[in-house]
Amino acid sequence: MHKKIVGLSVIILLFVSCGLVNNVAKGNPAAPIPPAPSAAAGTFSVSNATEPPASTSAPRTKSTQVAAPTPTSSMPSGAVVVNTFDQEIYPFKQNGNCSLGEAIWAVQTQKDQDGCVATAGNSTIYLPTGTYTLTDPDTSSPPLQGAEGRFGFDPGGFPVIYTAVTILGNGSTIQRTGPNKFGIFQVMVGNLTLSDLTISGGDTTNVDLSEGGALEIGLGQATLNHVAITNNISYDGGGLAADMNSTLTLNDSVVQGNTATDDGGGIYNGGALMVKNSVVSSNVAQDQSFGGGGIYNDSGTVTLDHSQLVSNLAFEGGGIYSDSGTVNVVDQSVVSGNVATEVSDTPHGGGGINSLGSNGDALVTIKDSFIVGNQAPKSVAGGIYVQGPDSNSTALTITDSVIADNSALASGGILIDMAGTGSITGSCIVENKATKVSGNAGGDIDNGNMDQVPFAATNNWWGASGATGSVSDAVTTSPALTSPPAICAGAIPTPYPTPTSK
Question: Could you please report the per-residue DSSP string of 23-63?
């Protein structure tokens, strides 16, 4: 946990405990999101080269289909209606307009602001469809008793969120441009709901230990419905950052093409992160010690529910790097085409998932999902790397899933390292490759438990040749399935292309 996160949380807690944040009401629900069109489908084909795969086909799943943000179906009664695309920052000009910044101020204070008319009890803002361009940072303090500054938050495009605010984007884009660097949204203790928006261009790299190019959450909550978070950059959490004790939920959304100069290219999570029916793809973490190209989980909980984590790039944990946290991958989720770039024949690569911890809280659960075509081309554990807290703890549980065509110098599919154990059952474990190991020993599963506690890999399908030669010692494979389980019968998702380092 970074010092900045702890300090920010302490400041916010002081204001909450003193009763200085008042009138926090639940936001109105967003309008229904129109159904998305079908996604393109591909066939199972993964490169075994030592460079990131170059496939351009899209993963095929049941219905993880995310379209571009679209207009909201109707304008709720009482909503504050923005009437200008221009940015206005505090202190606001009194020109008769209602800018988005003024609208946020109006719904939080429940007072009219310039052309924005506040309705008692309303927390919803309605945006006409268009592009809202931000060129200057908002440095205002939240209008709270004794508040000064932005409570440790980085410069942002709008006032800090400290109550319930719902923004209906109507398919609009909010983008930062120009020489001034700043993030877009910051949530202190409030509840921000964003719907039908694209947010891009957030850049906080001028601030040490900055977080969340598009959105940073302190102790609050944020829900993104049909939102695209694209091409943002920050120190941690290039796109999104959720600090400890916060909640971040993505529904039918995309986090794509974001960069962290440290960890968490797409998302940095220290709280509770739910990614549902969404895609996290082509994000990059540039840290040369840890990583998490798609997601960095810092002692929090991450759940991928019917979602895709594809083509992300990092030193370790190309898809996810989880430090003393919990990772759940469920309901036809796909972890595919992610790459760990570490150059070493010793742990901890982890092309798809890298999880480690020391306090009994490093847990990975995979159910009814695909870990396919991930790579650690110059290190170990192409698919999953897990280091449990002690030699008898259950650090990894996999059921009814596909672990296929992952590759690394050693431990192509799964590596249980040093401490911890686990199990896999009812799954397909095929064509995982340890490229530097003679005979592909441990290509599918490599048990490096320091006490040689057995890893239970029974009742699985290993392909026509069985498990012989593809597992290390202390891996129990018998009995094995004599035919593939249902999850193997359909088309296996093909990975997205992986980006080059930025």
Answer: ---PPPPPPPPPPPPPPP--------SSS-----PPPP-SS
